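User: Hi! Is it possible to get a structure for several chains at once, not just one? Here's what I have:
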Amino acid sequence: MSLALLFDTYQPIAGTFDEMIDAEGNPRAHARRATKILDGLTPKEFAHAQSLAELSLYSQGVTFSVYSDQRGTEKIFPICLVPRVISGAEWTRVEKGLAQRIAALCAFLDDIYGPQKILTSGTVPADLILGAKFYLPKVRGIRPPGGVRIPIAGIDLIRSPDGVFRVLEDNVRTPSGVSYVVENRLVTKRIFQSAIDESAVRPVEQYPMHLAETLRAISPVDPAETRMVLLTPGSFNSAYFEHTFLARTMGVELVEPGDLFVDDDTVFVRTIRGPERVHVIYRRIDDAYLDPEFFRPDSLLGVPGLMRAYAAGNVALANAPGNGVADDKAVYPFVPDMIRYYLGEEAILAQVDTYVCTRPDDLKYVLANLSQLVVKAVDEAGGYGMLMGPQASAAEIEEFRARIIAEPRRYIAQHRVELSTCPTWVPGAEKLAPRRVDLRPFILTQPSGSWVLPGGLTRVALVEGSYVVNSSQGGGSKDTWVQKDKSL
Amino acid sequence: MISRVADHCFWFGRYMDRAESTARLLQVTRTLVFDADIPVTQCWKPLVIVAGLEEMFIERFGQENIGNGELVQNYMTWEPENPVSLRTSIRSARESARVIRDVLSLESWEEVNELYHWLGGDEAGALYRQNREQFYRRVRKSTQLVLGLVRSTMLHDTPMSLLWAGAMLERAGQTARILDMHPHTMTLESAHQIVEVAVWLSLLRACSGYEAFVKKVQGRISAQAVASFLVFDRRFPRSLRYCLLSAKQILLHIWPEGDRPGPGHAPYARLDALTSWLDKQEATANPSVIHALLTRVVDDTALICSDIGREILGPPQPEKKPPMASQTQSQSQEPPDVRRPKPEKIDRIGGKAGVQ
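Assistant: Yes, the chains can be modeled jointly so their relative placement is included. Here is the combined structure:
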């Protein structure tokens, strides 16, 4: 039995867009080559390739730690070897939309931590911004060295049944996942080398090089003299693998807060030959743990004085502290307005209609329709603090109703989007079945402009019927194949 | 090189070499039981003693069990509370490796990681039960492979030097301990010739030195010859002299000015004094004083390791706030998602040496 037969029995879910197979059961034009090559493998061979891929990720320690597990168990981020293919022309449009969005968000942050014109203009409600959990009034007036507040962004996209890519949320603080993009490609390449070549897939391995260049571009000193470090909370952080991956592939040192200290508003790293100066910090630590002097006087975490050094322009931080105000889920609905306000353009990328519970009319609608809506806490991530109305029990709905009434500012709601699916290997059943996916592209921005990693992290909800793709909640990943755009 | 990373490199080398020695010692002691006509308890007891675990072991299992081979092997292989069991050493090595993941080569890391997962899985437990010899062999081979990969795939730079300094100093301590396991066989006159030869050969095997030794002495096996080979030989890579001289050279790679007062001087000076002292012992050494010699090597090696730790982590920086001082001890404070403590550093070189 060949996989062609498996594709024959493959049925996209009615009312849902499938990334690879159209409603008639035929491969989409851009996915034809990839599906044809999978065809050459029997299910047994495919299952074997799957297990080899997983074993290889495990031995290499391409893992994440599970927060809920007290013993700090490490798991691999499960990979499904059936790739998700995106056509070149479609990607060109997505790239433009992402760059546009980042430009507007950067302008927004500069404005909010500067003159706050957008608030006086009334384009965005001032109380919503100034009351956001991650708005940092103390950062106002500090100009970030290098001038870019979002050197690294991850924007989550989904595809609705009409086939349109929509922004689901923005991540402009410390987005993670890019290491899996590169590692997944390495694994897939070993197995599907010819398929990747024939499908004219754009490479992703150059990400660390671009990242290093992006970080050097915001250095307060001559790029050639710049010492960059990657700041991690430590080896028990869930994303520690990624921290080591990026440090290794950029060739920069991986440091913990205790390795750094500040003297005379200048940051130093402790080395075996004495203190040495640091100019750029790619920090993978939340704002709150950066500098106890600045954020939490009672805390011993972080590097005391780091924010003084930052304010003095002696060290660049990527990303800038205070960015959380821009990816607040209640601020998200206003991004198209920001694009119009700052860039004078219409948003290229669509997004999902959102009810903001601080607005009385929206609140009323949300409370009346809880069983049909997805409710999200504005300041949570990783699929936590969420109500999936259509799948929730009456008790869960009532619990959320009480929470929303108590703190309307903390919640937004959206209609559940029928996320697009992709053929996904189902272990046990030994066949392909449609499973829902999202996509997190990564955008690197320097003063001279943005660069988008071709592809990004495709996350897949491995459980049948599930809409939650987060790695912490049973999600897996796929290699994302962006094809060369022939029109360019 | 960052102080905290340097510290973990040094300890990674120590843990790896410690795991290898322990596996080898367990394996060899098992054969000693078959080869030498000495009571089984006399084979296993010294192993617990030289590991510095006598008190802990007796408290847990009672005096009567200190020669119980199965119990000793379980304790030295699996016991998580035993600071030098194979499981502890490999877990600590792997934790350090994770911390220094950005300086370790992929190949070395993969091997440590696989060994760690293997040891924690069912397969290792089954092999331990069904084929003990193969089990120790597998652990030894993997640890040797890691140390070999380090040399052949890592940049020969400060991180590797530190790692290797750790391995060499650990090995010097280990060889001294192994040699001190059966000191009575060194001092007795030839009444129990057969027993003693078996013991000496097992000591040599425990240090991978059997073939090298035989080549050198061409069959003339004596206590004096074995001791002198394992202590003084300049070309055998597990002899005390070889390990200490290598460590000395490596320290000069790390701190090129280390032979003068300044950074890196303290451990260098102590090591230099130890090797010079060892040189002087060569002419006068006889098996009856060997115990005293080994004790000094074990104790001084421990001091050298702590000197290195101090050099690596540096004196506390001039801070305006007190909390930073504690962070220089590589026990930095971390955000709340950190659930487990960092690997404990267990220094047993300073433990009690030898059977009295």
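Chain B is about 70% helix and 0% strand. The radius of gyration of chain B is 20 Å.

User: Great, thank you!
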